[in-house]
Specification:
Layout lengths: L1 E3 L4 H6 L3 E7 L4 H17 L4 E6 L4 H7 L6 E6 L2 E8 L4 H8 L5 H8 L5 E10 L3 H12 L4 E5 L12 E2 L9 E2 H15 L2 E4 L3 E5 L4 E4 L3 E10 L3 E3 L15 E2 L2 H4 L7 E5 L3 H10 L5 E5 L9 H8 L4 E4 L2 E9 L2 E8 L4 E7 L1 E4 L3 E3 L29 E3 L11 H19 L2
Parallel strand pairs: 1-3, 2-3, 6-7, 6-13, 7-10, 13-24, 15-22, 16-17, 16-22, 17-18
Antiparallel strand pairs: 2-4, 4-5, 8-9, 11-12, 12-13, 14-23, 19-20, 20-21
Helix pairs in contact: 2-4, 6-7, 6-11, 9-10
């Protein structure tokens, strides 16, 4: 692996050969997360592909010329021409290897991958998930001088990292951007000494053995595991939803309703969450339009009666959204009336989607006792049904799911784990 600058670009990249080029920056957590993965893939394929790094902050003109707008960004070149897909942000090892597919034959890649030597790492505690609950647990454990590793398929922060602003987290007088709050949490835990393995592929989780496999080759073992994998909103999976998440589309009324004071919003859904949250949103918004696919609401009668009596709430029944479009500061919701297939557009200031949540426990759900909604059951110390396995945050069976409750869970689990390890 070699460091280059703009002057070397013509010779090292355009001059020919097969190249993987990483534009990185300093004080960049995603860049720090990528560095060991980029190096390990370079060791594997380095005899066939040149792996180059370039400091984006000192080579801005070249970065702008190539259309590189974020760090890190990895590009692939074959004989001077860019090939394949660019990767940026939370780049995984598997992303880098997929990039090799544009430079080497499938047979050659498999041959080289066969040289990968399995690695086993040992820790006292594995925290699976780097949202607020996992980060809080990591902070308490490292301060207790317990050897801890924090593993996540994405970058640290969890859902809060994509939240526009957080105004209800204690200690901040003014609202704080979600990404900044999660960044500060992450840096505090990292600086304390918790080891990070983030933006990785979690291949297998065996809670009975207390071990997980990441990136297909590294086995991580521990005495105890804390599950902090969180939950994800169910998605509509229609055009515009992912693109405008956090930019007009929200999944949390407690987080974002206050930003729609005296404005209009659309709520998607008709169950308890949708109707109860619509009532909450109406305390801020001057008009709430509920779009529901059936001709009747599915919420409990108390919630329904309250919503129907609310002069700020309107209803559009037997309709489903088909796309979201952003027009300056407005959101356009295209809906289809199911009985006749006719479509129309609703202009609004924001959209809230409440069609249910699902805990992120797919890799190990059958190993634990769950509640009727599929969330992990725990006791007051956050212990699960398996010895030495704890769970915290939004993946846990509980009434309220907030940043503060996740942090509290992480604190409780870490203290319980520390006391058990100290025996």
């Amino acid at each position: 692996m070699k460091e280059i600058n703009s002057k070397d670009f013509e010779k090292e990249v355009i001059g020919g050969g097969k190249v993987a080029l990483d534009f990185y920056s300093t004080e960049c957590p995603p860049c720090e997360a990528l560095a060991p993965k980029f190096e390990s893939v370079a060791e594997l394929f380095g005899n066939h592909v040149k792996f180059l790094k370039i400091f984006r902050q000192e080579n801005r003109e070249l970065a702008e010329k190539l259309g590189v707008k974020s760090s890190p960004t990895v590009l692939f070149f074959d004989n001077g021409k860019e090939v394949g897909k660019r990767f940026s942000g939370g780049i995984k090892r598997s992303d880098l290897i997929s990039g090799m597919g544009h430079l080497l034959s499938a047979k050659e890649i498999e041959r080289l991958k066969s040289n990968i030597m399995p690695v086993v790492s040992e820790y006292d505690v594995i925290i699976l998930g780097a949202g607020p609950g996992g980060l809080a647990a990591g902070l308490y454990l490292c301060q207790a001088r317990i050897n801890t590793v924090l593993v996540d398929v994405g970058l640290p922060g969890g859902q809060v990292a994509s939240t526009h602003q957080v105004s209800n987290y204690p200690g901040f007088i003014d609202p704080v951007p979600g990404y900044l709050l999660s960044h500060n949490m992450s840096e505090q835990t990292k600086n304390c000494g918790t080891e990070y393995k983030v933006a990785v592929d979690v291949t297998k989780v065996d809670l009975h053995k207390k071990e997980i496999i990441i990136d297909e080759y590294e086995t991580i073992r521990a005495k105890k595991i804390i599950i902090a994998t969180g939950a994800s909103p169910n998605l509509l999976n229609i055009p515009g939803e992912k693109e405008y998440k956090g930019q007009g589309i929200s999944y949390c009324a407690t987080c974002d309703a206050k930003y729609y004071n005296d404005k209009e919003v659309v709520v998607i859904g008709g169950g308890n969450s949708a109707i109860e949250e619509a009532d909450f949103i109406s305390k801020f918004a001057k008009k709430v339009t509920i779009v529901h696919q059936f001709d009747k609401l599915q919420a409990n009668m108390t919630a329904q009666e309250k919503a129907f009596a609310n002069p700020r709430i309107d209803f559009v029944f037997e309709s489903e959204p088909r796309s979201f479009i952003k027009n300056d500061y407005k959101m356009i919701v295209e809906i289809e009336h199911l009985p006749d297939g006719k479509r129309k557009q609703i202009e609004t200031d924001g959209v809230f989607i409440f069609i249910g949540m699902k805990p992120n426990i797919g890799l190990f759900a059958n190993q634990l006792q769950l509640d009727q909604w599929g969330y992990i059951k725990t006791d007051e110390d956050m212990r699960t049904s398996l010895p030495d396995v704890f769970a915290v945050g939004d993946a846990v069976s509980k009434k309220y799911r907030q940043i503060t409750t996740a942090v509290a869970d992480g604190t409780i689990a870490a203290i319980a784990v520390a006391k058990e390890l100290d025996v």
